[in-house]
UniProtKB/TrEMBL annotation:
The keyword Transmembrane does not apply. Coiled coil: none annotated. This is TIGR03557 family F420-dependent LLM class oxidoreductase. The keyword Oxidoreductase applies. It comes from Mumia zhuanghuii.
Length: 328
């Protein structure tokens, strides 16, 4: 099904680490041979146990200065509330320039957790998709160079121009939690982004004419001790088992603490690839490969002091196994 070469990325969890650590992880990911890194663009962390949420585009600028080859991406930026789409176009273009064209703009309709902070309320999902459509139209306009104006139901643009553009506009990858947004990704994006191994999302994207890369986050928790891996994932990543509809609607970390109060460590073992076993990690990743995703973003929710061991594990053992799976 896939038309692009299988690529392996690393998820930079900006909610779980200080900004300087995120930059160092990106440098280590390049050294470990990852094809790209993807950083979350949040205002709040999901859980109190995370305690961080640095500004994504500042970290990306620092990463661009410290790396030479690795691709950079947001996973994902919401261009409809916290940011006006004209500002997103400028941020993305500057990041593209600083990284010599290595930047991919991942966008989505957002989560209430991050967007309610500006006091504009939280629209229904159908309205958010309409807003996202207008936002992408504005960003596309500004990526073409020159001055542009736009008048929509939700956004206006008044004689605006982004002066510093990379030679090639950043690729735009659109997050999808359902078939409607997958079709939107095909019409206005250059690729698809998802967090669940749902083949119907890829099918809807392709049936609507989408031919670009398909990104998906793969939940792993590396540790030499499988129990330590599962417990670490439970501390900082249990929000991930609530599902996208819950993740999009709750406003603050305290709500996610309540929503995950009954999540067990055993639930994390079921959802994540916990421990050092390459075959268990490959089993989790294969769900995404089989669904048609060709850009796998490996998320490591294991103990932070074993992150270097995780990078070694990917370089020496896991990546070769994933390439075998992708080759069929």
């Amino acid at each position: 099904m896939a038309t692009n070469r299988q690529q392996i990325g690393f998820k930079l969890m900006a909610e779980g680490f200080p900004p300087k650590d995120i930059v160092e992880q990106a440098v280590a990911a390049e050294e470990a041979g990852f094809d790209f890194v993807e950083v979350s663009d949040h205002y709040h962390p999901w859980l109190y146990s995370q305690q961080h949420s640095g500004f994504a585009f500042s970290m990306l600028a620092a990463i661009a200065a410290r790396t030479e080859r690795i691709g950079l991406a947001t996973g994902v930026t919401c261009p409809i509330m916290r940011y006006h789409p004209a500002v997103v176009a400028q941020m993305a273009a500057t990041t593209g320039v600083l990284s010599d064209g290595r930047f991919t703009l991942g966008v989505g309709a957002g989560e209430r957790l991050n967007e309610h902070v500006v006091g504009a309320g939280w629209p229904s999902v159908s309205v958010r998709h309409e807003m996202l459509t207008e936002a992408l139209e504005i960003i596309r306009l500004l990526f073409t160079g020159g001055y542009h104006s736009y008048s929509g139901n939700y956004f206006d643009l008044d004689d605006a121009r982004v002066f510093d553009l990379p030679e090639v506009p950043p690729r735009i990858v659109v997050a999808s939690g359902g078939e409607e947004s997958a079709r939107l990704a095909a019409g206005l994006g250059d690729g698809l982004f998802a967090t669940e191994p749902r083949e119907e999302l890829v099918e809807a994207y392709e049936q609507a004419g989408g031919v670009g890369p398909r990104y998906a986050e793969v939940p792993l928790a590396y540790s030499a001790d499988p129990t330590a891996a599962a417990e670490a994932a439970h501390r900082t990543a249990r929000f991930g088992v609530t599902g996208w509809k819950v993740q999009a609607e709750l406003p603050n970390p305290i709500n996610f603490e309540a929503a995950t109060a009954h999540v067990r460590v055993d639930d994390m073992r079921e959802a994540f690839g916990c421990g050092p076993d390459v075959e268990r990690h490959a089993e989790v990743a294969s769900r995404y490969i089989e669904a048609g995703f060709d850009h796998l973003v490996l998320m490591n929710a294991g103990p932070p002091d074993e992150m270097d061991a995780f990078f070694t594990h990917v370089r020496t053992t896991l990546r070769p196994r994933l390439e075998e799976l992708a080759a069929g």
